[in-house]
Structures are given as C-alpha cells and as structure tokens.
Amino acid sequence: MSSLADHPRPVWLDTDPGLDDWLTMLMLAADPQLQWLGTSVVAGNAPLETTLDNALRIARHYGLDVPVHRGCSMPLAGRPETAQRVLGVQGMRTHGEPLPPAPGASAGDDGVAALLDALRTSARPVTIVAIGPLTNLATALRREPGVVARIDEVLLMGGSTDRGNHTPAAEFNIVADPEAADVVFSAELRLRMFGLNLCRQVGVEAAHVEQVRRWPGRRAAWLAGYLQAYQRLRSADGSVPMPLYDPVVAAWLAAPALFEFSPARVDIELQGRFTRGMTVCDFKADRLRPFNALVAMRADGPAVMQLVLERVHRALARAETPL
C-alpha cells in the first residue's frame, strides 16, 4: 500500500516575506507530505525589491532548494500599501544579527507565468498557499481563467470575521489589494480563509523565543533575533503574546485536526470610505449568494504553536551545511 509520502501534495507558495512568511517557508520545507513546486513573491509587507530580497536570503541561508520568482510590484488598483511602519524598512526587524545578503538573482522575472506553468504541468491539481496580498494569483486568474481547473485549493492567510489590523475594518493582505482579493473570492475556487480571528488564537510568547535561542547554530541565532523583534511588536518587554499569522496555513496542512471551519459567503468591500478591504463574512447562504469559502474559526493555539516550532526546528536540522 502506498503512503502519503509516495504521493505528496503539490503546493505553490505566494508570499511577501516577512518573519511569519519565513517561518512558513521553513515549515513547508520540513513537511514530507508536500511537494513544494515553487514560490512567487509579491509586494506587501514591503516593496517588491525588499520582499524578493528577503525571500532569496531565506532560501539561500536555510538551504531551501525551491525556485523563487519575482511577482507583481503593484496592486491591481489604488496605491501601494506596506506594513513597514510596523515591521520596519526591511519588512522584518531583528534584535540580533541581520540575515546576510544572498548572492544571485531570482529564478525568473514573471512569477505569474511561473505559477501558471506549474499549474499546467503538475501531475496533480496544485494547492496554492497564499500568505501575502493576492495580486499574483488574481493576475494569473485574469490571464488564464481556465486554470481554475488545475487548482486543488487556495489556502490564504487574510481577512477577518471581525476587526482588522491595518485599518479598523480590514486585514493587511486584503486591504493591500482589495481588487485582487475580489477576483480570487469570485473565481469559484475551493478556498480556505485563515483570518485574524483565527490567528489571534495562536500566540508567540517570550518562552517560544527563548526555545529557539537555545537551538545551536547561526541559522537558529538569526531566526531568534527576528522572532524576538516580532514577538515584541505588542509589548516592549515581550509580556504580551503576539498573534502568529502566516504559519497557521502550513500548520493546517500538517495537522488539520487542530482547526475548525465554518462555510461562509465572503465578499470584499471595495468602495467603503472606512471599510475598503473588509472581508464581509455571511454564514448564511441562499441560492443567489452561495458559500464560497471555508473560514477558519477555531484552533488549538498552544498545539499549533508547538507544531510550528517542531517543524521549524526540523527544517533547520535538515539544512545542508553547518553554520
């Protein structure tokens, strides 16, 4: 009898690193049930040149043998939004030594074309892990609408069933390109939405930072410095847990039993003066407005956080060369 490892699930990562994107990349690399086909980078936490640089540094210094492609630098409409006012110019701060520059360039300058090629050529429909603004995916769907049939599922970190974070109503990944999110949620895809309401149940605590700091090697030391800066975004002394965002998607792939979902109709507010980018979640459906997503509602936060650390530690242990 064949095992899951014999038929790994093909995944494509769309990302805007970001410390939590970094953790997600390590988790995907450590999951034997996944076939990681490639990565497209999008402007989000910082402008594209910065998020791409971060992705290349992470891939180079953590032994991630996955092609990284330059994606979209601008949203479909409106002005660019970044999270640099919170996360710093690099899109991720550190309390330690910075991650060194990575020599070389991306695998290609059209991440949308690379994504479409992966969808066409994969032996099985592909799961898309979308943890940044949805510009790359929306552009792919507009360029080739029929490619929907080659997508098994879209797992996205974004949105919220209640309050936002970048604005009172809107979560950052959605408000950074609401028109792109509208394209994706309207595309008749299988969607799982991991929003702020879910991510706030998974907290990074000071003890988790110290756990990483005790791991041996420079890779762990780099990561611990960035993780500490991230954990202290909510409190200068680290006494308040910091919600963990993007890695919850990789955690669901590894341990779906830790999560509960509800079907919903999710629409993207495009016009509101105060609510642009809001994910309007209706948990009642009718013939005219059917459900279009499964929305993550509950998670076993401590178990998810421990799983994240276990997978990240495994990825560091598998990195090819000692540092």
What topology emerges from the helices and strands here?
Layout: E1 9-15, H1 19-29, E2 34-41, H2 48-61, E3 68-70, H3 84-87, H4 111-121, E4 126-130, H5 135-143, E5 151-157, H6 172-175, H7 178-185, E6 191-194, H8 196-199, E7 203-204, H9 206-213, H10 218-231, E8 242-243, H11 247-254, E9 259-268, E10 279-282, E11 293-299, H12 301-318
Parallel strand pairs: 1-2, 1-4, 2-3, 4-5, 5-6, 6-11
Antiparallel strand pairs: 7-8, 9-10, 9-11
Helix pairs in contact: 1-11, 1-12, 4-5, 5-7, 9-10
Word description of this protein:
The model has no long low-confidence stretch (mean pLDDT 95). α9 runs antiparallel to α10 (218-231). The chain has twelve helices and eleven strands. By secondary structure, the chain is α/β, with parallel strands linked by helices. α5 links the parallel β4 (126-130) and β5 (151-157). The termini are far apart. The chain is globular. Helices cover 35% and strands 18% of the residues.
Helix content: 25-40%
Low-confidence runs of at least 5 consecutive residues: none
SSE order in H/E notation?
EHEHEHHEHEHHEHEHHEHEEEH
Q: N-to-C terminal Cα separation, in Å?
A: 40 Å
The average pLDDT score comes to 95
Which word captures the global form?
Answer: globular
Largest sheet: 9 strands, mixed
Biggest sheet: strands side by side, in what order? 3-2-1-4-5-6-11-9-10
The secondary structure category is alpha/beta
How many strand units?
A: 11
Number of helices: 12
Measured by DSSP, the beta-strand proportion falls in 15-25%
Radius of gyration based on Cα positions: 18 Å
